[in-house]
Amino acid sequence: MTDEEFAELKTNGIKVNYYLVCQRKLWLYSRDLRMERTNERVALGRLLHERSYREQPRHEMLIDNLIKIDLLGSQGKVLEVKYSRRMKEAAQMQILYYLYYLKRLGVTGLTGELRFPRERRRENVELTEEAEKRIEHTLREIRRVENLAAPPQVDFMPICRSCSYCELCWG
């Protein structure tokens, strides 16, 4: 991907996550429909993120007013705390995107770590050449979904019940 194409396609990590979870949710979010503020599960996740691993030297960084990452002090890790492993693939892609974004800025040598404190699990995430290609494809697809005139049709999934956008999609 050229620098020009990346500059045009770069986005925030939430959109990368939403692309893998539900493209309709991504489309609605990209239209500035923010339903997360009223969702209890999102509030629980935010609280878990704030209260977990307080003993570790974490530094939250907002980069380009676009991505917000947690860095683990001396370990050279980008940290992402998630409520559960239910959407693990989306969480992995989100942290891979952060690593990719940082690499595009010239920051190398970092790895990612997903943490699921309620489950007491950790997973290391590494940016490989294959992962970079998946990220680039995902960025192009996010733009395609955002440019649709209407939200994409999706099938009801069990995860829809706890989604902050459920009411918009299913009434």
Automatic annotation (TrEMBL):
Record function comment: CRISPR (clustered regularly interspaced short palindromic repeat) is an adaptive immune system that provides protection against mobile genetic elements (viruses, transposable elements and conjugative plasmids). CRISPR clusters contain sequences complementary to antecedent mobile elements and target invading nucleic acids. CRISPR clusters are transcribed and processed into CRISPR RNA (crRNA).
Cofactor(s) recorded in Swiss-Prot or TrEMBL: iron-sulfur cluster; Mg(2+); Mn(2+)
Gene3D superfamilies named in the record: 3.90.320.10
GO biological process: defense response to virus
Species, as recorded: Pyrinomonas methylaliphatogenes
Domain of life: Bacteria
Name listed for the protein in its UniProt record: CRISPR-associated exonuclease Cas4
Documented EC number(s): 3.1.12.1
Cofactor binding remark: Mg(2+) or Mn(2+) required for ssDNA cleavage activity.
